[in-house]
Amino acid sequence: NAGVTQTPKFQVLKTGQSMTLQCAQDMNHNSMYWYRQDPGMGLRLIYYSASEGTTDKGEVPNGYNVSRLNKREFSLRLESAAPSQTSVYFCASATSGGLVGRFHTQYFGPGTRLTVL
Amino acid sequence: KQEVTQIPAALSVPEGENLVLNCSFTDSAIYNLQWFRQDPGKGLTSLLLIQSSQREQTSGRLNASLDKSSGRSTLYIAASQPGDSATYLCAVGGMNRDDKIIFGKGTRLHILP
Q: Which of B92, B97, B103 lies at the smallest CB-CB distance from A43?
């Protein structure tokens, strides 16, 4: 039972490049989340998916797109990376109460450390 | 807008002491509150989840309490050990459609051997 997995673990991009962060969970959870964690800012929700085929914006969605490919996978795409997107990105999953705030126990992946030069 | 605060930002205590970590929130209309632990360079590990209708949850040496009316939660750690050294974060989820999940910035705990 792998839980929540994320790839890659580390990535360095140049400004303007694009990339996709991958996330998969094997716990049959309906809800999946993308967060970023920055020093002094804490964890902030980027996007949320309550179920396969649905996505909603979180606190800081600008500059990102997401795809809920199926129940297991939720990807985060940076179309044109900027230095302000340098951060640690975490994916999480949970059973869901429906609305984004009505989460149940969240399980986190190990994170992707992204640097944009 | 919900705000979640954790004070102090850092705490050092000798091994064996009991300690309390604090989490306060400004909007009492929460769905639940979750405490996490984060080790350096790692993801978050869930410790305890308290539903809004509950007053406390316990797991081993950990006890989390919730007082919605005062906008506070505490995480009590009994008989602290060096392995408890980590950053502890709380997160609250809201009841309503526009509510999100809001995290505190965490308390960095160091247990002195």
A: B103
pLDDT in tens, A26-36: 999 989 999 99
Per-residue model confidence (pLDDT) at position A35: 96
Name chain A contacts of B92, Cβ cutoff 8 Å: 101
Per-position DSSP letters for chain B, written without gaps between them: ---EE-S-SEEEEETT--EEEEEEES---EEEEEEEEE-TTS-EEEEEEEETT-SEEEETTEEEEEETTTTEEEEEE-S--GGG-EEEEEEEEESSTT--EEE---EEEEEE-
Q: Which of B94, B41, B49, B40 is nearest to B73 (CA)?
A: B49
A42 chain-B contacts, CB cut-off 8 A = 89, 103-106
pLDDT of B29: 87
Q: Do A103 and B101 touch (CB under 8 A)?
A: yes
Nearest to residue B112, comparing CAs of B14, B10, B16, B18? B14
Select the residue of B43, B89, B101 nearest A110 (Cβ to Cβ): B43
A9-13, A52-56, A102-106, B25-29: segment of lowest average pLDDT: A102-106
Read off φ and ψ for residue A92, nearest 5 degrees. Answer: -140, 160
